């Protein structure tokens, strides 16, 4: 019976290990001194580091300098969550480039199995690139519409004016200050 219990435990541990390894996200644990004590295997595909290379590394060593303040202070305040939602930050990959990560962190300093900050990280670099490209495209489109010689206005489904370009504002004698009253 004891042998079966040990085998069941080993199977459960192997299953958990496989689930963690197959995840598209990686998990990290940082201790109260802000040093990485655990990182799961998917970190290698995302950042290029082998998990063993990161153990003992201060987390701030791979965080973009402009993003370090995103996580400053959570250990001191002993809260159970940080920002209650995902935080975006850039992490330096092994090749020297940066990947944009969406991270969700829980402070589990008093949890005997975790004993630190448990962070789940998802690579959103490609999403951020597409998002920025879309923002630039919309800005160009807005500039084209606003500088068109013809008056262009958009209406909401209920017939309210949503926007007017420069030519339409001249046509309807609407100045920029009055624009908010129309839209």
Overall description:
This protein is 38% helix and 22% strand. The chain is elongated, with a radius of gyration of 25 Å. It is an alpha+beta fold.
Provide a concise account of the structure shown:
The chain contains seven helices and seven strands; from the N terminus they run αββαααβββαββαα. It is an alpha+beta fold and 183 residues long.
* H-E order: HEEHHHEEEHEEHH
Number of helices: 7
Question: Biggest sheet, open or closed, and with what strands and sense?
Answer: 5 strands, antiparallel
Shape: elongated
Task: Name the poorly predicted regions.
Answer: none
Tell me the structural class.
alpha+beta
User: What percentage of amino acids are in beta strands?
Assistant: 15-25%
Helical amount: 25-40%
DSSP, total strands? 7
Rounded Rg = 25 Å
Mean pLDDT: 86
- Strand order, main sheet: write it out: 2-1-5-4-3
Instruction: Give the termini distance in whole angstroms.
Output: 74 Å
Please render the helix and strand layout as text.
Elements lengths: L1 H21 L3 E5 L5 E4 L3 H5 L3 H4 L19 H4 L9 E6 L5 E11 L7 E8 L1 H23 L5 E3 L5 E4 L1 H6 L4 H7 L1
Antiparallel strand pairs: 1-2, 1-5, 3-4, 4-5, 6-7
Summary keywords:
two-stranded antiparallel sheet, alpha+beta, 38% helix, 7 helices, five-stranded antiparallel β-sheet, 183 residues
């Amino acid at each position: 019976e004891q042998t079966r219990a040990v085998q069941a435990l080993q199977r459960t541990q192997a299953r958990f290990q496989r689930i963690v390894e197959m995840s598209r996200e990686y998990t990290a644990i940082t201790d109260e001194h802000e040093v990485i004590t655990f990182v799961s295997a998917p970190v290698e595909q995302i950042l290029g580091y082998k998990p063993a290379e990161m153990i003992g590394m201060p987390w701030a060593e791979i965080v973009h300098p402009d993003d370090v303040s995103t996580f400053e202070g959570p250990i001191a305040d002993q809260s159970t969550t940080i920002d209650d939602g995902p935080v975006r930050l850039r992490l330096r990959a092994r090749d020297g480039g940066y990947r944009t990560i969406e991270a969700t962190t829980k402070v589990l300093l008093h949890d005997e199995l975790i004993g630190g900050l448990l962070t789940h990280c998802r690579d959103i670099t490609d999403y951020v690139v597409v998002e920025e490209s879309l923002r630039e495209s919309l800005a160009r489109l807005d500039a084209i519409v606003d500088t068109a010689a013809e008056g262009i206005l958009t209406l909401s489904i209920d017939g309210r004016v949503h926007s007017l370009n420069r030519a339409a504002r001249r046509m309807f004698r609407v100045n920029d200050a009055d624009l908010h009253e129309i839209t």
